[in-house]
């Protein structure tokens, strides 16, 4: 089984979807550790309920970003994961950290990247009048939200959508595409190669897959 170390900062609904997929044997993986930079992250309770070890590493107790990232990397190495899974982890990571886990560091972002890197993605998609919106699972590279997409989920923006309704549907979509993308990674159907998501069957890296 693949060993997953999941990093969170908040609700942890994506963590929940991943734990459920592991438990239901949809994913041939085990979440070996959940690390949060916030002690009040609800995802910690979800992990504890599933009897998964948790760790809080409060970034505010470190002098600077490299100091936090070095401690984080050491904690991650101790659980010897195959993949480091960012699931609503709201910290920017230093290039040194990213390089250390390159190809094994995965993120989910609530937009159709390269559209709307950063925050407030749903409001920005609505403000732009986009007809489609979505979420992207991607390899993390040193430039924030710019790594190669592995899987994208797309949905239609409805005429009466608000930020909240759109966000709720994106979340549901995320809970499907994140376990799916991890499954592809664990099966070795896709890997990181020369700054791209390389599919062993030759398909394009960023084509929507579900
Ligand atoms: C998710 O929508 C995820 O895409 C987003 O945070 C949310 C976490 O929800 N991530 C980012 O914005 C990363 N820049 P969750 O805690 O319920 O999984």
UniProtKB/TrEMBL annotation:
An annotated GO cellular component: cytosol
Residue numbers marked as site, Raises pKa of active site His: 145
Class of the enzyme per the UniProt entry, highest EC level: transferase
Biological process, per Gene Ontology: 'de novo' IMP biosynthetic process
Binding locations of (6R)-10-formyltetrahydrofolate: 65, 90-93, 107
GO MF term set: phosphoribosylglycinamide formyltransferase activity
Catalyzed reaction equations: N(1)-(5-phospho-beta-D-ribosyl)glycinamide + (6R)-10-formyltetrahydrofolate = N(2)-formyl-N(1)-(5-phospho-beta-D-ribosyl)glycinamide + (6S)-5,6,7,8-tetrahydrofolate + H(+)
One Pfam family of this chain: Formyl_trans_N
Enzyme Commission numbers on file: 2.1.2.2
Domain Formyl transferase N-terminal: 3-182
Role: Catalyzes the transfer of a formyl group from 10-formyltetrahydrofolate to 5-phospho-ribosyl-glycinamide (GAR), producing 5-phospho-ribosyl-N-formylglycinamide (FGAR) and tetrahydrofolate.
Family statement: Belongs to the GART family.
Name of this protein: Phosphoribosylglycinamide formyltransferase
């Amino acid at each position: 089984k693949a060993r997953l170390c999941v990093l969170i900062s908040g609700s942890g609904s994506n963590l929940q979807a991943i734990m459920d997929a592991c438990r239901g044997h949809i994913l041939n993986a085990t979440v070996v550790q959940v690390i949060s930079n916030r002690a009040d992250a609800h995802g910690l309770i979800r992990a504890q309920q599933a009897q998964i070890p948790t760790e809080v590493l409060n970034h505010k107790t470190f002098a600077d970003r490299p100091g936090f990232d070095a401690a984080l990397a050491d904690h991650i190495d101790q659980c010897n994961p195959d993949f480091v899974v960012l699931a609503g982890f709201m910290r920017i990571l230093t290039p040194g950290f990213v390089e250390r886990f390159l190809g094994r560091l995965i993120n989910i972002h609530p937009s159709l990247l390269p559209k709307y890197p950063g925050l407030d993605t749903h409001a920005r998609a609505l403000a732009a009048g986009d007809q489609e919106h979505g979420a992207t699972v991607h390899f993390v590279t040193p430039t924030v939200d710019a790594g190669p997409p592995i899987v994208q989920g797309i949905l239609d923006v409805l005429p009466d959508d608000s930020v909240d309704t759109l966000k709720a549907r994106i979340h549901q979509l995320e809970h499907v595409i994140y376990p799916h993308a991890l499954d592809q990674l664990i099966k070795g159907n896709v890997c990181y190669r020369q700054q791209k998501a390389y599919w062993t069957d030759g398909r394009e890296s960023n084509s929507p897959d579900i």
